[in-house]
């Protein structure tokens, strides 16, 4: 089984999960907030109800002795930005399944799926409240929600997409914890690792629903905050995010994975990007880099380059068999060929990305 999702700005403007009539009922003009419980600013009674639905409360442990570093604040902002997107996504999915809109009538297992999704949505609300609460304690403006658009049309495509962005989260939280460690924000590491485990449990559910093994790899693919920041923006309506400019992370130019029906085998994959954003026409000076698992990033040349108007088409060798590249692979086009010892080094030199490839 496979999924290929470029998750770039090209997704903006595509209709959301529900048909037009249902979408207007649920989220007029792509506005998802506030929810009926007041989220993202629920009152104490609403928070108590969210905690009951989530099967657990926010931590009541005292905050760290010292406030987060500047880089720690950036990580909290990214987490809040992502969680607000996820809550909107899962709330629309619950609506579609509950109302049994075309493509979302599951028949057998319907109530179990709704129950699971409601718990997941409540858990994501707590993740968002936790991140924004950390910003509030640091006397920093909390991240506000955007308008969103989701490029799915039925339950299976919605679950497939949920699995992919959860894979991104699982990699990104690795990076967040690493950044906490580097900057002395150890007081934030344990809670973040706890939420990472929760996201892994959610991913197991998404994979089972797709009839996949519940675990994809022994060591999940490493992520980088900048790649996640770019990916989530693929679901936002441009200009609709009130304070996204306060998140000091990079936004890459779109990299499109043109190959479809990707099999679990070594092969050449097809990609494209906009020529105007490359900053060069010396295609040999660019590289395609694949990030998969915890191996050193794999660097490949751009092969069979063909320019059509403003679009650059090319191939790159995908060495599946050599590196057993199951699960999520993050592709990027970089300046130069490295070497890149890790995912952050790739992000530092990346121009285009992330191209997201899921292989089972």
From TrEMBL:
Signal peptide range: 1-17
Keywords, sorted A to Z: Signal
Stated name of the protein: Late sexual development protein
Organism: Massariosphaeria phaeospora
């Amino acid at each position: 089984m496979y999924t290929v999702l470029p998750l770039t700005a090209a997704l903006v403007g595509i209709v959301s999960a529900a048909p037009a009539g249902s979408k207007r009922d649920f989220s007029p003009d792509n506005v998802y907030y506030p929810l009926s419980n007041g989220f993202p600013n629920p009152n104490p009674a609403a928070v108590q109800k969210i905690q009951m639905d989530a099967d657990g409360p926010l931590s009541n442990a005292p905050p760290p002795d010292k406030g987060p570093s500047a880089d720690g604040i950036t990580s909290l902002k990214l987490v809040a930005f992502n969680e607000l997107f996820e809550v909107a996504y899962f709330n629309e999915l619950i609506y579609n399944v509950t109302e049994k809109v075309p493509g979302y009538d599951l028949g057998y297992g319907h109530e179990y799926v709704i129950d699971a999704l409601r718990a997941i949505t409540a858990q994501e609300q707590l993740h968002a409240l936790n991140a924004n609460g950390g910003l509030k304690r640091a006397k920093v403006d909390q991240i506000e929600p955007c308008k969103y658009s989701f490029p799915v049309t039925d339950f299976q495509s919605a679950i497939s997409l949920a699995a992919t962005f959860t894979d991104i989260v699982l990699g990104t939280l690795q990076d967040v914890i690493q950044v906490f460690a580097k900057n002395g924000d150890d007081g934030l590491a344990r809670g973040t690792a706890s939420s990472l485990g929760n996201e892994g449990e959610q991913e197991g559910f998404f994979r089972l629903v797709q009839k996949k093994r519940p675990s994809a790899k022994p060591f999940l693919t490493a992520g980088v905050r900048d790649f996640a920041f770019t990916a989530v923006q693929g679901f936002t309506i441009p200009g609709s995010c009130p304070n996204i400019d306060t998140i000091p992370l990079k936004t890459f130019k779109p990299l499109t994975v043109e190959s479809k029906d990707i099999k679990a085998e070594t092969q050449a994959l097809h990609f494209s990007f906009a020529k105007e954003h490359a900053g060069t026409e010396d295609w040999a000076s660019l590289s395609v880099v694949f990030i998969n698992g915890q191996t050193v990033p794999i660097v490949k040349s751009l092969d069979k380059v063909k320019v059509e108007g403003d679009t650059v088409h090319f191939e790159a060798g995908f060495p599946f068999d050599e590196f057993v590249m199951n699960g999520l692979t993050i592709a990027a086009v970089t300046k130069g060929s490295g070497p890149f010892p890790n995912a952050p080094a790739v992000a530092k030199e990346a121009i285009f990305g992330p191209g997201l490839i899921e292989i089972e």
